[in-house]
Backbone:
């Protein structure tokens, strides 16, 4: 049953929440010294209010993933190590990209001089060519001037919302969401994330109806947040779903009627599956660029912006190369100036230009990467449905792209003990009430049991999911064999007498 709509707002003046229905926080604050991330570090009192606001720690699932890097699973040398399925990384095709980058041409001395901070002309031209094919589907030509670069998609989003929104304004984001949005918008720009919960009975499909309900709920607040944009992640993170072309067009029409900016995060455009498992109803990706072309528009207009990065489609998380595509000349002018603080290194750009301009190698990589992702997703689905922890049949939202299985572990909520739930509630700092919000304590108890099994995933509360019991599993960050071991551990962890590594 769909939960009653709530509006969750996060501002950087307080720590990012682990929401319960109504947006309760998890009780953590600060970014501490030593092993206690809740303790403000020495010197905190000497910082500005803005600086103190930035002390809030990364969420627990990320801190655990970073720590687990020192104790990774290896079937031969460390069989009791951690299996991390919580960070959005594609390790399946990293060997292909590393090999190509190792063969890049020498860097000429001229590349060591200052140049455009928003990207070299050569890389912007190469990206414009790629996007004219993959995003606009050859229906119009994206100009190199429309393409701007910064140090990662997070930097692009941070700069973009700083340009289009003032401190205290907000952006509307469908939930469940990618948690990084909250920091991207709030950490320095002081722009609030306003949740627009989508209906779990539809697989959390992004719809105009869901956005409108959240818009009206915000308007009914005592002090409504001034909404300046809507941010849509398509293909979805965490769901892996692809929006129908008709719904993409409908969202654009809705946003334009509201007079707000529309930001489309299309970071998984080249990571679609050949044969989606679980029977995803829609598996042909249509970019907002193509949708606008089909509507007779030969560009994005001044209100539509596309964000992309090399981090996902090209396994380049550490390359820090994000992209903004915009036809808004004023946004371009400001962006090209502020990227002085977050430009992409020229040697990185040269290597990426060589990759994109080698047409046979580029086409071969995209084809092989899709094959590997499709195979890994199918294997992850098989491992999931075969596991049956606590005798339960586990399902997921049918994915069509990306790295994730948005997995329904609600059957396991009843499998944790009362003592575990009480301990989880105490750890979250949210008292048990006997009501629906207690389900999030159960979700956290399940999460903690998975951590004890040394399987790291992302709890749904961290994605602002309004229904407890959903978890994001990143199958692309591990091998197919490791994913099978992870599900075997989960099954063992929910036996009558749990078994842990």
Residues:
């Amino acid at each position: 049953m769909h939960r009653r709509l709530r509006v969750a707002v996060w501002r950087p003046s307080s720590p990012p929440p682990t929401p319960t229905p109504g947006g309760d926080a998890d009780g953590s604050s600060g970014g501490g010294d030593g092993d206690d991330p809740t303790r403000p570090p020495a010197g905190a009192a000497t910082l500005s209010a803005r600086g103190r606001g930035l002390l809030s720690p990364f969420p627990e699932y990320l801190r655990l993933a970073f720590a687990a890097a020192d104790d990774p699973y290896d079937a031969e040398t460390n069989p009791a190590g951690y299996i991390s399925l919580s960070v959005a990384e594609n390790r399946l095709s990293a060997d292909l990209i590393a090999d190509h980058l190792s063969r890049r041409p020498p860097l000429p001395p001229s590349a060591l001089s200052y140049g455009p901070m928003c990207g070299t002309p050569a890389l912007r031209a190469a990206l414009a060519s790629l996007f004219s094919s993959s995003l606009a589907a050859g229906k119009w030509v994206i100009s190199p001037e429309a393409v701007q670069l910064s140090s990662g998609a997070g930097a692009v989003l941070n700069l973009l919302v700083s340009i289009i929104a003032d401190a205290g304004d907000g952006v509307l984001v469908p939930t469940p969401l990618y948690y990084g949005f909250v920091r991207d918008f709030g950490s320095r720009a002081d722009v609030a994330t306003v949740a627009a919960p989508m209906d779990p009975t539809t697989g959390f499909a992004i719809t105009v109806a869901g956005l409108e309900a959240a818009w009206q709920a915000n308007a009914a607040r005592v002090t409504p947040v001034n909404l300046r944009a809507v941010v849509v992640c398509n293909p979805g993170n965490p769901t892996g779903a692809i929006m129908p072309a008709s719904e993409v067009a409908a969202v654009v029409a809705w946003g334009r009627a509201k007079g707000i900016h529309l930001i489309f995060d299309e970071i998984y455009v080249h990571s679609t599956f050949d044969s989606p498992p679980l029977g995803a109803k829609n598996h042909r990706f249509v970019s907002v660029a193509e949708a606008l072309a089909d509507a007779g528009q030969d560009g994005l207009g001044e209100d539509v912006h596309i964000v992309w990065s090399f981090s996902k489609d090209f396994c380049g998380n550490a390359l820090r190369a994000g992209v903004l595509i915009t036809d808004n000349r004023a946004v371009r002018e400001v962006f090209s100036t502020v990227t002085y603080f977050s430009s992409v290194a020229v040697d990185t750009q040269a290597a990426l230009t060589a990759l994109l301009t080698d047409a046979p190698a580029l086409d071969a990589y995209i084809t092989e990467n899709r094959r590997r992702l499709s195979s890994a997703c199918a294997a992850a689905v098989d491992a999931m449905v075969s596991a049956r922890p606590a005798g339960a049949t586990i399902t997921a939202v049918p994915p069509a792209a990306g790295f994730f299985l948005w997995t329904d572990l609600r059957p396991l909520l009843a499998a944790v003990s009362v003592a575990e739930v009480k301990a989880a509630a105490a750890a979250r700092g949210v008292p048990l009430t006997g009501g629906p919000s207690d389900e999030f304590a159960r979700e956290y108890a399940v999460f903690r049991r998975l951590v004890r099994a040394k399987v790291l995933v992302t709890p749904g509360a961290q994605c602002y999911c309004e229904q407890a019991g959903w978890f994001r599993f990143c199958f692309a960050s591990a091998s197919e064999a490791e994913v099978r071991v992870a599900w075997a551990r989960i099954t063992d962890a929910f036996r009558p007498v749990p078994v842990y590594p």
Notes: The chain is about 35% helix and 10% strand. Residues 1-7, 12-34 have pLDDT under 50 and may be disordered. The radius of gyration is 22 Å. Residues 274 and 371 are 7 Å apart (CA to CA).
